[in-house]
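Slide 14.
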Amino acid sequence: MGPATRFERVQRVAVDAIKAHALNLAQGSRRAQVYILTEYLWGEEGPEQAMLARSGGAEPPPWLAKLIAAQLADEHRHARMFRDRIETLGATPREAPPLVKAKLWWLDRACAAYYAKFAAGPIVVMLAAAARFEATGVRLFSRHVGVLEASGADRELLEMLRSIVGDERRHARSCAAAAQRLVAASEQADFAELSERIARIDRAFGITLAVRYWLLLAALAARDGITQKRGFV
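Slide 15: predicted structure.
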């Protein structure tokens, strides 16, 4: 994948700033915290696991099967951590909205032409997508870590997210390295094209979704502020 364009750099800075401000607004709001953690849960149980669990019907080589099994175990552990945290806040995780499944459907459609382009098979596409989602997870959780470090709030959540960031970094590197190991020299151009297509899908509607995220968290935090003043939970 080539270097980011100016628009992509501006988009990334804008999304990070909007979402970091939303996370700051959410501190101290039970409803907002539940929403944030539920979105993290959807990410751990959603496209990343789905992409890794699929191999196009082919049996991966032993070294890759071991890597996938270990990574899926980590993702399940992360999901359990988020579920436990949500339950500690007195809530029950909501089911993922159709948008989460739609992202995987969109990815399937956009990448279908590449499934037969690699000698190693569709697993190359799955690894490329998983590497991208894991790298996005690193940004997502690192942003929250930065907010918590600056505020000094919720040390327990901070340590949990730090441990997850470490896992996600390792996963992103492992998936990217595994994909490269499977891609022949003659397939590198196709792989670069595939990676860019996945990246475009991953960052689609970035600023629009960030603004929606801010509005949702601000509304939840405001609602908690109102109910707390009135003496309600």
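Speaker note: The mean pLDDT is 87.
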